[in-house]
Amino acid sequence: MLPSEPPQPCPFSAGTGRPGFAVPPGTCDCHMHFFSDAAQPVPGAVVTPPEATLAHYRRLQARLGMSRYVLVQPSTYGLDNRLMLAALAASGGNARGVAVVDDRVAPGTLARMQEAGVRGVRFNLVQQGATTAAMLEPVAQAIAPLGWHVQIHVQQGDLIALAPRLQGLGVPVVIDHFGRLMEHPELAPQTFDRIRRLLDSGTGWLKLSGAYIATRHGRYDGLDPYVRRLAAEHPDRLLWGSDWPHATETAKPDDAELMDLLPRWLPDASARHTVLVRNPEALYGFERAAAGP
Prior knowledge:
The protein is globular. With about 290 residues, the chain is α/β, with parallel strands linked by helices. It has an eight-stranded parallel sheet. Helix 5 runs parallel beside helix 6. It has eleven helices and eight strands.
């Protein structure tokens, strides 16, 4: 798409504008999902959105100026990673995957996923079903030889309780959706303390994704003091993700507006380059892009 051409509307995304800052080459969307009408949701699946495909998503990439993405296995399909793996095969090498496995996963299965581009496993303990907290240690032990990470989506109270175990897993740990920091504001100080300790340890990463999940009041300013402090202390431990196609949201957000939260928290262009380009390269093994600011 030429810069002079207006962006095309993208399914599951409000608005058509571009971000209000210069998005650096090599930018990676570190949290998004695909859904297919041909794929069967697991019994009892909480999130069952309509079809959201690579062709749809490429329109969002063009609009926002992103070239790389991390495809996260949604709770919808449980342990059936076939749709995610097929999408990785169609990505042209510009994507990495985060799978869902349990404590019975075979080493050969993990090796095949590694070859396909998978670099981590997700525990979704909010929309529960495929995995449990009891599986954290055995799954971490299984993926450690591959250099993978554990990605975890949990309620605030569970994150507070699980934090010591997460820090002791012996693999990198990625916290989803700001750790849901302001969903329950009374728990925000404790939640922030656990996240900060994890990042301080050099073990943890935090995804700046799904701001509408992290605060349920339609405003994001409650996140500001927490994210600004983490951005000042640990810009090298933060990742950004769109959470497209926003499967939990009936009213879809404007992805450009979500991306425009970054200059609010990271006013320095070099810090944004770190979050959008360098950190995904380090965690997911993308080739190094051109030098930033």
